[in-house]
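SAMPLE LOG
Freezer: B-3
Tube label: C17
Construct: single chain, 235 aa
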Amino acid sequence: MGVVIMTKHYALYNGDCLNVMDDLINQGITVDAIITDPPYGMNYKSNRRKDKYNKIENDAALDFLDEYLKKCNALLKDNTHIYCFCSWHNIDEFKRSFERYFKLKNIIVWEKNVHGTGDLKGSYAPKHEFILFGHKGRRLRNGKRLPDIIQANKTGNKLHPTQKPVDLLQVFVEQSTDKGQTVLDGFMGSGSTGVACVNTGRYFIGVELDESYFKIASNRLEQVTSDKGGHHGNV
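STRUCTURE (predicted):
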């Protein structure tokens, strides 16, 4: 494990999520929800931006997925929710692994404000991603019932090649947790789930393997908590 940063708002781990999750399980730590965006197994690399990103770590295959979701189950308290982003390319494999450990309740569609590229002449223009939504046990949602198609603007991927919008993540945080509860993301990327948690008064545990994105996430979360009196420290 690399750097660990802990504050009163969040705990961030720079390392392999499977190893970090083992450590959390051994410490008896449990969480109230998981909102996570693992690699899609597509060997994805965006070519649209002028400033190119590196390929996403461990995105060539989904060998990690079943073990990851099993450990998600071990860390979740009873009667909790999990959200797992995926794309249509490998949704069958995601769904099989997900349903081994959780009751799948919806496949939520995130409708983006603009479409992607892909095969310009041979396919329809992609304008969505999927989120598997499930229960460990059964937990009622907070607030009003929302449709399973949710519109949210794309981020422009300014901090990460698959960056997710904070406003979309805040919907999931508020629907599935109460203030003061803890949310885990084992693939935190640029820390968007953490920002959603800080914005809504939840505690965040985030793990990121790539050192450069870990630094982006830690700097971003330090900035967003600066007006809340958060203390930033390394362990």
